[in-house]
UniProtKB/TrEMBL annotation:
Molecular function per GO: histidine phosphotransfer kinase activity; protein histidine kinase binding
Keyword Phosphoprotein appears in the UniProt entry: no
Locations listed in the record: Cytoplasm, Cytosol; Nucleus
Cited function: Functions as a two-component phosphorelay mediators between cytokinin sensor histidine kinases and response regulators (B-type ARRs). Plays an important role in propagating cytokinin signal transduction.
Keywords in alphabetical order: Cytokinin signaling pathway, Two-component regulatory system
GO biological process terms, semicolon-separated: cytokinin-activated signaling pathway; phosphorelay signal transduction system
Full protein name: Histidine-containing phosphotransfer protein
Organism name: Prunus yedoensis var. nudiflora
Top-level taxonomic group: Eukaryota
GO CC, one annotated term: cytosol
Annotated domain remarks: Histidine-containing phosphotransfer domain (HPt) contains an active histidine that mediates the phosphotransfer.
Coiled-coil regions listed: none
InterPro entries in the record: AHP1-5/YPD1, HPT_dom_sf
Length: 151
């Protein structure tokens, strides 16, 4: 790999380490990254792309449910649990913590608490999304540098 690729790989590792120190990513990210190999060099890219698409659906559904005059708290609770599970599986630590706040507020059937928690979920999700997209972009660039050049 060219020097540029090594520099980019080092930048990626430093970025991931920084995100882990901030709690944006958990150490589970290392487990996901460890599953990536020569046979599936874009696994992390694929996992996060799917996660981000599913997360958007959860956020939309939670927002829709909490905008109803009569909130279906069991549905909010179920969605928040699913979203937390998804964020935990994808190493998004602070989003998972925010989802737990939403779970707690839905159990208490506290609409104001749910709205505040959802706002926190959305804020943390956007931070995670920005960073996951950056990781995916860097991973793609590294992958493309490794491809043989067409003549």
């Amino acid at each position: 790999m060219a020097a540029k690729g090594k520099d980019l790989s080092q930048q990626l590792e430093e970025h991931i380490s920084s995100l882990q120190e901030q709690g944006i990513l958990t150490d589970h990210f290392d487990d996901l990254k460890g599953l990536q190999d020569e046979n599936n060099p874009r696994l992390v890219d694929e996992i996060f792309t799917i996660f981000l698409r599913v997360a958007e659906d959860y956020r939309a559904e939670l927002t829709r449910n909490l905008s109803e005059p009569d909130v279906n708290y069991s549905e909010v609770h179920k969605l928040a649990i699913w979203f937390k599970g998804s964020t935990t599986s994808n190493a998004c630590g602070r989003v998972a913590l925010a989802c737990q706040e939403l779970i707690d507020a839905s159990e208490a059937q506290n609409k104001e608490g749910c709205l505040v928690a959802l706002d926190n979920v959305n804020r943390e999700y956007l931070v995670a999304k920005e960073n996951l997209n950056r990781i995916v972009g860097m991973e793609r660039e590294i992958y493309n540098m490794r491809l043989p050049k067409a003549k």
